[in-house]
Here is the input.
Amino acid sequence: MSIRAKAAGRAVVRWTSHVIDMATLTAVLLLVAFAGYALWDSDQIHREADATRHAIWKPTVDEGESFSQLRSINPDVFAWLTVYGTNIDYPVAQGSDNLKYVNTSAEGEYSLSGSIFLDYENDPHFGDFNSVLYGHHMEKNAMFGDIGTFADQATFDTHRFGNLFFDDADHGIEFFAFIHTDAYDQDVFTAAVGDTQRQSVLDSLIAKATHVRDVGVDASDRLVLLTTCSSSSTNGRDILVAVLTDQSFVDAFARPEAEFSRDGAGVDARVDLLASAGPWIVVALLVGVAAVVVVVLKQRARTRGRRGLERGLV
Here is the structure.
């Protein structure tokens, strides 16, 4: 074989090795970029859904101005729901249908995490016998992600009360039933039933319940149903049923003021900041692994090229 032919062969091998390196590097970088974007996007969704993000709007006895400011931004917001001892602490909106706030934030902007919202057929003053509140079941116990935990008897037993702020006043909610049912259960999801249906609806709710406590509820009371998707079945729904009262209850799970501040600079906010760094650590590890893979593949390609040349010289 002539020297020129051998040189041409070496050039082909080098070019092939270079092409393989570049193709591999491009594929790995694209994979890392996609993984990084997916992690970032997931983190953004959870940040939007985090209850602490809404804390600045929460109405208090001494400060109702912040909630009024939220209502001026989005007049569809009319109430605030808190379930003591959970992450459920959100403004409540009501749209002209039950689709708008599936993907709309309390500020009225597009959001995959949506909002907690009241059935469009319900009275916003909670005058109906059964008022239905919807929210997404999200990871990290965001939105209504905590409702499923009430399937545990101990959680149901120890988390009895909550608060519903509307019409410029606090109202107590006392939970008396946890239900797991199908998304198409009309006995549960028919809002604002008439007077003649009250007793039958109440009986149906209690009959379907996994957990029940006797709080003396009857057909003359007003009920609030918190419902979300269930992670245990495809079309399943988890529902927490409460009786609404004019008397508010003490939050036995309330944290000292030193642990939380309305500007989000408390202990929980700092912990959340550290937790949110997790995805970026994963991205850094992925980049490191990708770099090692590229180096190894490149070295192997060069080794194969040298061996080919050596065979050609023999």
Summary: The chain has two domains: 3-46+276-313, 59-261. The first helix runs from residue 3 to 49. The domain at 59-261 is CATH 2.40.260.10 (Sortase; Chain: A;). Strands lie at 77-83, 89-93, 116-118, 130-134, 161-166, 169-182, 209-212, 222-229, 236-245.
